[in-house]
Design brief:
Layout lengths: L1 E8 L3 E8 L4 E7 L5 H13 L5 E9 L4 E3 L4 E3 L7 H10 L2 H8 L10 H11 L6 E2 L1 H10 L13 E2 L4 E2 L1 H7 L15 E4 L2 H7 L6 E7 H8 L8 E4 L5 E6 L9 E4 L4 E6 L3 H11 L16 E3 L17 E3 L7 H20 L9 E4 L6 H11 L3 E4 L4 H13 L6 H8 L2 E5 L8 H26 L1
Parallel strand pairs: 1-4, 4-11, 12-18, 18-19
Antiparallel strand pairs: 1-2, 2-3, 5-6, 5-7, 8-9, 10-11, 12-13, 13-15, 14-15, 16-17, 19-20
Helix pairs in contact: 2-4, 8-12, 9-10, 10-11, 12-13
Length: 458
């Protein structure tokens, strides 16, 4: 069976998706035994071993971004690290929004995981830095022997018009482009599989490797998001919610920047996936949301690992508010699901997007109860993407485009993308007061989250 392989190096596991030329899909997933570069590589090799013998014509890559390997992994700054607050504040104070728009093609968001605050943070704590890369760049070097990246993975430091690093931003950071991976377009042929990598992975030597992009853009591509007005919800460890628009939005609390098609406006949660994992672990019985609201369940803040949008607070933590003696497993499970949906609604309020149909993909899209609750709380129709491993599919589509099988990303979407299920809102008025309470809780608790951090250090 001949076709293309997409590899998505996620935050908790590596996902592989093979699409044959006649449309058959094969998948494999392998969790990391350790979240290190060596752990990522070992999981990839194990995952490839789960696939049957295939005639792979090319490989496309996708990965998490905001995780930085400094000096080959001597230091690793994770995407969810509470690092760079002072550096971000300094950057935003020193550089105007107009400069950001001209130099990095977007306003700089209030996110610690973007390259500039991370690099300044690393410089303050390391005597000498000779290299900085992200997980996909590391993987590219393991596969081809060349450390390369793409401008979309380095948003916040790269100018997406020139598709290269901003010289002005590099000068501000006082770093040379030589310590960063060179940038190529996503569909560029980045190299070929080396003999050493072929022996370790079991793939054939000389296999073409296409550059790829960040997991978020790959997921948008793989779920069919393209037209102006398309809304999306990319579920995962963090959750990206937003839409495609004709122009940038000048707002710090959310993210707005150039996409393959038009611009995207979106916000990113920090802990939606971990919150749902907590629910499954502590309240495995789940719930039927339609039967819970009348029992006055608690309100949940899903900030287990801090929050990114529309608040930027790495110190925030999860909170159940209003737990009564009558609360049981179902009420607690419901509160977690509702809190995750409220976090998405909170982001959407900031984006100034028209209300339309939303495309949902990722692992959480397989939960019908959550999908219906999300449709009710957001007040919009949800379209569930046929392929839940959208980032891996997007990486595969990038390889297909790079190889010339598709004339461009738009044609790749026509060939590869489809819809599976639909959910229509049914009970949109029931959440007004609860959502208003949800939004009031964080400002009340903000200083207490900081105090909690101090208590933990004693």
């Amino acid at each position: 069976m001949s076709g293309f392989l997409g590899i998505d190096l996620g935050t908790s596991s590596v996902k592989l998706l093979f699409r044959s030329r006649d449309g058959n899909i094969l998948r494999a997933r392998e969790a990391y035994t350790e979240k290190t570069p060596q752990g990522w590589w070992a999981a990839l090799c194990r995952g490839i071993g789960k696939l049957p013998p295939l005639e792979i014509e090319g490989v496309g890559l996708s990965s998490q971004v905001g995780t930085y390997l400094v000096n080959g992994g001597e230091s690793i700054i994770g995407w969810d690290a509470a690092a760079g607050v002072e550096e971000l504040n300094k950057i935003k104070g020193d550089i105007s929004q107009e400069t950001f728009l001209s130099e990095i093609s977007m306003p700089h968001p209030d996110l610690l995981s973007y390259p500039m605050p991370a690099i300044l943070y690393a410089k303050k704590r390391m005597e000498k830095i000779h290299s900085i890369c992200m997980p996909k760049d590391f993987l590219m070097e393991k596969l081809t022997g060349h450390r390369l990246s793409d401008p979309y993975s380095w948003r916040g430091l790269a100018n997406l018009e020139t598709e290269d690093y901003s010289e002005k931003m590099l000068d501000y950071l006082n770093v040379s482009a030589d310590i960063l991976p060179p940038l190529l377009p996503p569909s560029a042929l980045a190299g070929r599989l080396t003999r050493e990598a072929a022996l370790e992975t079991g793939l054939r030597e000389g296999l073409p490797i296409y550059n790829g992009c960040n997991d978020f853009f790959a997921a948008l591509l793989g779920s069919g998001v393209q037209r102006n007005g398309d809304l999306f919800d990319i579920t995962g460890t963090s959750e990206h919610v937003g839409g495609v628009a004709e122009e940038n939005l000048r707002a710090d609390q959310v993210v707005s920047g150039k996409y393959f098609f038009h611009f995207v406006r979106y916000g990113v949660t920090a802990s939606s996936g971990p919150s749902l994992n907590l629910m499954r672990r502590l309240f495995p019985g789940g719930c039927n949301p339609k039967q819970i609201l009348e029992k006055m369940p608690p309100v949940f803040l899903p900030y287990l690992n801090g929050e990114r949008c529309p608040i930027c607070d790495p110190n925030a933590r999860g909170v159940f508010f209003g737990v009564s003696g009558n609360c049981g497993e179902a009420e607690m499970a419901y509160a977690v699901m509702e809190g995750v949906c409220f976090s998405l609604k909170h982001i959407l309020e900031k984006l100034q997007l028209p209300r339309g149909r939303m495309i949902v993909t990722g692992g959480a899209a397989e939960n019908p109860a959550l999908n219906q609750l999300k449709a009710d709380i957001l007040g919009m129709e949800l379209t569930i993407s046929r392929e839940k491993e959208a980032s891996a599919l997007g990486a595969c589509m990038i390889a297909m485009t790079g190889a010339g099988v598709c004339a461009g990303f738009e044609e790749a979407q026509k060939i590869c993308c489809g819809e599976a299920e639909y959910y229509s809102p049914e009970n949109t008025d029931a959440f007004t007061d609860r959502f208003a309470l949800y939004k009031r809780l964080y400002p009340i608790l903000k200083d207490e989250f900081q105090a909690l951090r101090s208590v933990k250090k004693q």
